[in-house]
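REQUEST FORM: STRUCTURE PREDICTION
Request ID: SP-0412
Submitted by: Lab K.M.
Chain count: 1
Length (residues): 301
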Amino acid sequence: MLHICVCVKQTPDSASVYVDPVTGEVDSERFVLVLNPADACAVEAAVRLKEQTGGTVKVLTLGPKDAEGALRAALAIGTGSALRLWNPQATEWGPFTVAAALASYLQHEASVPDLILCGGSTSDWSSGIVGPALAQQLDLPQVTGVAQLNLLQKKEPITLRLMRKLERGYRELLEVELPLLITVTGDLNEPRYPSLPAHLVALQAHIPVLDPLPLMSDEWLDSSDEMTLLEIHAPRPRPHRIPAPDSRHSAYQRIGEIVAGGATGRQTRLLEGSPEELARALVEFLKARGFVQPPGDRDHV
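STATUS: Completed
RESULT:
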């Protein structure tokens, strides 16, 4: 029986993040917390594999009480069980210590999962460290940046075909056997929209909590934070590009090109005249395109 574990995180929706341009501080009160998008794709991939081969899917997170929202979102998608790890000291842990906590729990399970799925990056810090560090802790082979995942063989050994993204737009096609750890991108799939009954069941589900601290070695607890925060700033908005008009045209024609915005198939016509002439031209324009029906035609309807 295939045993899958998905490690997820609850992160702020990127649209709700606001950085004060003066102080550089993040306004956490505006946060709308959601299941990390890449993690949602990992959950969807796990549920699809369970539907094809059978087995179980457990979703795992390290976080406070609020993090149960991510677990319940995963349960609504179709995972079978969920577990939350937490200790108050975890607020100071970096990604390597988080990976050590997840690994400590999985190592104390009856058996390590056949397949571990993680999001390749998160929408908050986007370090991409937890997945590879977890594979190193569990001594598992890993494939990162997976953008396509297909099941090749259902029988032992279960075989998957993966396509991962490389630098400069290259792609790598792999055939792998379990056990394995995979980190996926947000392009892997489109997570299903759970039904209302699935949401209600997930909201009522009991989620156990486990303290990972007694399971961890002092090596990680005594280490300093692995990450130093230097600066926080809002991402620069993408520039709005306006196509330059053709300098060979007249000023009148260049104005029309700017108004059209370079859109293919869009035609722009500038009108000049008195208000009566402009109104008459507008009515003729609407009649020609069927937006206004002549009075004679309405009488026959």
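NOTES: The chain has two domains: 3-221, 251-299.
Reviewed by: T.R.
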